[in-house]
Amino acid sequence: MNDNKQDTTHFGYREVPVAEKVSLVGQVFHSVAGKYDLMNDLMSLGTHRLIKRFTVELSAVRSGHYVLDLAGGTGDFSLLFAPLVGNEGQVVLADINESMVRVGRDRIIDAGVPGPIAFSLANAECLPFADNSFDCICIAYGLRNVTNKEAALRSMHRTCKPGGRVLVLEFSKPRNQLVGKAYDLYSKLWPRAGKLVLNDSASYQYLVESIRMHPDQETLKQMMLDAGFARCEYHDVMGGICAIHIGHKS
Amino acid sequence: MSFALLQSAMLLPLELAINSMLALDAGSRQSLAKLAGNTLAVRVRQPEFTFYLCVDASKLRLTSHYEGPVTTTLLGSASALAGVLVKRAALTNLQGTTLELRGDTGFAQSLQNLLLDLHIDWEFHLSRVLGDVPVQLLADGAHKSQAYLQLTAQRIRQDVETFLHDESALLPAAGELEKFYSEVQALVLRLDRLDVHLQNLTNHKV
Known about the structure:
Chain A is α/β, with parallel strands linked by helices. Chain A is built from ten helices and nine strands. Chain B folds into two domains: 2-120, SCP2 sterol-binding domain (Nonspecific Lipid-transfer Protein, Chain A); 131-205, no CATH class.
């Protein structure tokens, strides 16, 4: 008997073949890379900068550490981590999308950031780094775009040093229904903002849908435990609109 | 956690302001470099919150979350801490306050001296976050409010003085007081002279 059923995954609300998701997500980020930071400021009303700063505080990164800024995109986190690791450490900005890495690399060079920052085109599901390489791995607003999240978490666990930690900053599920409703209404404006700024509403429609499809706080915590992380915890940010998950490698 | 995020957000403009000032002052930067690697934890009671001042080679980081070793811990209520800041009192002399300093007090004192020598232009730094026009309006409002409050306080003080002296006559006027003090002073002098005169008479008798 011939089974023609293809393995599928979600791309926003759509079910697409697994093999297609990477290129579809790639098209989204190729499209938005140039004005990614501007759109982030518009959509979050600037609060994403505070949330990122707070995430870095939770990372406990210090001088001499090796840090992987996974799905690092335009380099916000690399810019925050670089002064902390100093010249003794290193930050690696890794992203699967060439356009995003290019924007991030140009921005970091323009900022004249001291300390070594390396760049890597890398798929989170199969990170091209040796085992036990990093003291800290941070993936911010990236995990929900990964096709196989479990594989990505396992890959992060493999490359994290024993005693190191992984931080996952991602949109999540608001705790309060009223906050949830308000947030739903507000996020419906994002495709329109995308249309105005980038003449691309589809990418931001995908963003809204991908947020809805992303696992909630407890589910993601369990996924991290299943990937091998210990002492997993999460911090709700802005009433659960975002969550910062932290897992340690024992 | 939202409170921690808020706390982190509140520390950000302060950190930017301090580091901007440090960047302009070579002497302060050198002093800061000598303190690099040390951390001051400030544990505030009522309301409860903690923040950390981490000294790097070229900047000061203010953070709401820190997991490394702490050099010095400063504990106390928000009002006591504010009192020390307003009076610019030395952290090494906390007698008569409810503040407590644990660890390396020398580091705390050096850091305090460094920060007290900074003169921060709040309007400039706020304008970087809020924009020039809103900050100009805020600053104008603040200056006018300050001037109005000072004038009002001065008038109230004058009115109370007038009422106590002239209307209710509960207190003597300033001129009356001065006359009374000068009379007392003259009396003291005359008593001193009388005392000396008496001593001379007593000595002659003997």
